[in-house]
Design brief:
About 35% of the residues lie in helices and about 15% in strands. A hairpin with a 5-residue loop joins β21 and β22. It contains 18 helices and 22 strands. The chain is an alpha+beta fold and about 675 residues long.
Length: about 675
């Protein structure tokens, strides 16, 4: 089950977090379409519901029926989408295939799956292998390269055990396995790829040591080459791999069932400690303060998003599984996942259920069984895993807020923390009065690890890397390939130039940079402080599932009106962006190839929906953080920006005691007089 952490900062939040986990969604199907997996249908990530005739799982939409798609039904505040069958259904509990979570019919650790240290490659290695494969006859097509990486290399990486780090050992194992089954194509490709990889690695090592480059072998001929090893590094981590590195992924999950795992199989619940966003980010800030040199944070967490069709509506929490949880937190991330997370309603509670997306594991199990004998099936489960002409004034009377210290585990404290384990000031977050305005203006950056980092400055090995879809392998012009190789020889760890291998593009900025500028965001904030909530706003909030779950502060207290109005104004921008973004994406093309489009209609709409979903999540996180700061006793409830009439503008500029004119005069004279004749020193040390 989900656990409310034993955290002094959450003493008053227990009721809120318990409500986060509850739902009134119930089953009620006729029992005719949930007797087996075939009739049950499959989960559709685009609709965030199942494509099925079972009404417990069937896709729903909010709002009038005219706004629903042809396969969707209109729904009120309560919908049965993504709901397990229960006592309200006509189906039998013993034969129903839609009760796996409540009946705990997932994959068993030690029987179906096992936790094990795994290996993986990053985008840099993936791209280099694709480029090398494209030189092999018969592998020119990008899909052929990707299939070879996924079907041959990545499946073999886990089988070679402790030498999984060594790309040479992996390719040798691919070749040997293909020879045993008579797969001549794989044998030839593995042999040539092995030579290409070794040649590039040797060239890089010689360049690094200042030696002359070795003569290039012609065509696809196989040439002998010595392993690139440091002295005395027999199979150790000293072995130099500059361009084709395989990295430890930590503990992951392997399928050990000889029969493999079929598609649409329930795997396990993702369980752990549940945090509200404001406390979760306080904890992350404390960890970063205690570990200033930490490059990557721990990934044993997942976002808990309440369904929009629940009567309490959409809300966001964070599940921390590092200390307490299920093996679901060990499922690895992947660019081509075979599992995904689904928010399910089960007997009055909400849970994150992990499900397989395709029968890859079953095929993989059979493939490996033919090679290694019965019982050795091994497959890495991968989880999807405005301008304004109004004068305004800022609220200056907000109070600073100091949080309760965040309790951290010893491994989170870092090596430089105090011996007493308290962490001191590092575990306390101080919110300045400007925090409220800053959060509202930068609302869309809440989930970014380092909002100030530029995407074009990302380097391999850092937290944020370009999307795999923005990398283009296969047929590069010779001049561009030559430039790439020269760049890799000179400085393999430097950032990639834009427009070469990676297209560094931030799709979300394509609209926001023009229609949601800093001025626009402040203009919306000003409107929120001066306009009333209307029926259009309420309909907009309802359409996106923003009800009590997102529009309530601590202990269920409703947010102030200006904050709700602001949320509606932001939603209006989000909807407009989602409508406009597909057209902009369809105009994008492969760098240097204006004739090759990056998107079709379907992928462009999918990208736009992804941006919209991310925007909504950031909006709700912002509201939650603000609700916490506004819960401070004595905190003013006014909006940060308020419109000014003519008299107020004059007081602000000229006649007021703290006007611009008085402050300017005080800066020139070293002191100033108010309009009442009182002397005010500009320097506290000057009397």
């Amino acid at each position: 089950e989900y656990i409310i952490p034993d955290d002094p900062g959450l003493v008053g939040e227990k009721g809120t977090m318990e409500r986060m986990l509850r739902t009134r969604k119930k089953g009620g199907c006729d029992g005719l379409h949930c007797q087996d997996k075939h009739t049950l249908g499959f989960y559709d990530a685009e609709k965030d519901a199942f494509s099925t005739a079972c009404t417990c799982l069937k896709a729903s939409c909010l709002g009038p029926k005219a706004a629903c798609g042809p396969t969707m039904k209109a729904a009120g505040p309560l919908s049965m989408a993504n709901t397990e069958c229960d006592a309200n259904c006509a189906c039998s509990a013993t034969s129903c295939a839609n009760r796996n979570v409540s009946q705990q019919k997932g994959l068993k650790l030690g029987e179906d799956v096992a936790e094990q240290s795994l290996w993986g490659i990053d985008c840099y290695t993936h791209q280099n292998i694709r480029l090398a494969l494209a030189l092999v006859e018969g592998m020119e097509a990008d899909k052929a390269c990707i299939d070879f990486i996924e079907q041959q290399i990545m499946r073999t990486v886990q089988r070679v055990g402790k030498r999984g780090w060594d790309v040479y050992a992996v390719l040798d194992a691919v070749k040997a396995s293909a020879e045993s089954t008579g797969d001549d194509l794989v044998v030839r490709v593995a042999r040539i790829l092995r030579w290409l990889v070794e040649e590039v690695e040797l060239l890089g090592a010689q360049k690094k040591e200042g030696k002359g480059a070795r003569a290039e072998a012609p065509g696809n001929a196989e040439a002998p080459a010595a392993s690139v090893q440091a002295p005395g590094a027999a199979g150790g981590w000293d072995v130099e791999r500059l361009y084709f590195r395989i990295y430890p992924k930590g503990v992951g999950v392997l399928c050990t069932n000889p029969e493999g795992v079929a598609a649409e199989q329930y795997v396990v619940e993702y369980l752990g400690e549940l945090y509200p966003p404001w406390r979760w980010f306080e904890k992350q800030d404390a960890i970063k303060k205690c570990n200033p040199n930490l490059v990557l944070p721990a990934f044993y967490n997942i976002c808990f998003e309440r369904p929009r069709d629940d009567d309490q509506g959409y809300a966001v929490g964070y599940v921390e599984a590092a200390a307490r949880g299920s093996y679901g937190s060990r499922l690895s991330h992947s660019c081509d996942p075979n599992c995904q997370s689904v928010m399910m309603a089960c007997d009055g509670r909400l849970t994150i259920a992990m499900r397989t997306t395709r029968p890859v594991l079953l095929q993989m199990a059979g493939h490996l069984r033919r090679k290694d004998g019965p019982g050795s099936a091994a497959a890495d489960l991968a989880v999807l895993y405005g301008s304004t002409d109004h004068w305004c004034v800022a609220e200056k009377k907000y109070l600073s807020v100091t949080s309760v210290g965040v309790p951290l585990r010893p491994e989170e404290m870092g090596p430089n923390s105090p011996d007493d384990g308290t962490g001191g000031e590092k575990l306390i977050k101080k919110y300045k009065p400007s925090f409220i305005w800053g959060q509202l203006v930068a609302w869309y950056k809440q989930t970014i690890y380092d909002p100030s980092a530029s995407l074009s400055a990302d380097r391999r090995g850092t937290l944020s890397l370009p999307d795999p879809e923005s990398a283009f392998g296969g047929k590069y012009p010779n001049a561009q390939r030559k430039h790439l190789l020269e760049m890799l020889e000179r400085a393999p760890s430097t950032m990639w130039p834009t427009g070469t291998i990676w297209s560094f593009k931030n799709k979300a900025k394509m609209v926001s940079s023009k229609k949601h500028t800093f001025t626009d965001r402040n203009a919306l904030l000003l409107r929120a402080g001066g306009e009333k909530i209307n029926d259009d706003d309420r309909a907009l909030l309802e359409r996106h599932g923003l009800r009590a779950g997102a529009l309530s502060g601590l202990n269920g207290k409703p947010l102030v009106d200006w904050m709700v109005k602001w949320a509606a104004l932001i939603l209006r921008f989000i909807e407009g962006e989602q409508a406009e973004l597909p057209g902009l994406l369809l105009k994008e093309s492969v760098p240097g190839r204006p004739d090759i489009a990056l998107h079709n209609d379907e992928s462009a709409k999918g990208e736009a929906k992804g941006v919209s979903d991310s925007r909504l999540q950031n909006l709700v996180i912002t509201l939650n953080k603000l609700a916490y700061v506004f819960s401070e006793d004595g905190q003013p409830s006014n909006a940060p920006l308020q419109s000014m009439d003519e008299d107020a503008v004059v007081r602000y500029l000229v006649t007021g005691d703290d006007s611009i004119a008085v402050r300017l005069l005080g800066g020139v004279t070293g002191g100033r007089k108010t309009n009442r004749g009182e002397s005010v020193s500009a320097n506290p040390h000057v009397q």
